[in-house]
Amino acid sequence: MFLSRSVEQPHHNFGTKLPTASPNYVELVRFLVHPFLESPETLSVDCEISQALNRVWVRIAFESTDKGKVFGRGGRNIQAIRTVIAAAAAAVGQSTYLDIYGSTTPGREGMSFDEDTEERSPPPTKREPRANDGPKPIVKPRLR
Questions:
Q1: What are the pLDDT digits (tens) for 59-96?
Q2: According to DSSP H, which parts of the chain are helical?
Q3: Nearest-angstrom CA–CA distance, 27 and 23
Q4: Which positions ≥6 away from 68 have C-beta within 8 Å?
């Protein structure tokens, strides 16, 4: 054994603060969203940073046809994108909000997916019971 040999100490700076320069959120979001898009040239990213509140608002818009891929099954993809952006912001002491808007097609700017009526199916309508419908059958559970 070499007990007398000195071991070089690691140069960790865990106690020091990180630089307070903001990450490039626009390029980060482009990097994260680009692989999900069929037509990546339609991606529009806008970023607004409030130095006083340490908050960042990122707004993205892309074609409605790519919505399913960007959101992913159960929203997994968009949640992962939000997590990465939040981690980058937390590293410099900021918080983030990601707003997603609908189609970048001319004439439909600024419409969020929530406001996009083409994406929604019509609400179900209740059917009024008719006189000849008769009573509903009683379904009993089967015992095995």
A1: 999 998 999 999 999 999 999 999 999 999 999 999 99
A2: 25-33, 67-71, 76-90
A3: 9
A4: none
Order of all β-strands in the sheet with 95-101: 44-50, 55-61, 95-101
Distances (CA, A) of 107 to 119, 120, 130: 16, 19, 45
Angle made by CA atoms 27, 28, 31, in degrees to the nearest 5: 85
> What is the rounded distance in angstroms from the CA atom of residue 106 to the CA atom of residue 125?
33
| 57: phi then psi, degrees, rounded to nearest 5 | -110, 120
Classify residue 36 as left (phi > 0), alpha (psi -120 to 50) or beta. alpha
Of the candidates 101, 55, 95, 56, the residue with the CA atom closest to the CA atom of residue 78: 101
In this structure, the number of other CB atoms found within 10 A of the CB of residue 58 comes to 22
* pLDDT digits 0-9 by tens, 28-44: 999 999 999 998 899 99
Q: Residues 6 or more apart from 84 whose CB is under 8 A from it?
A: 28, 32
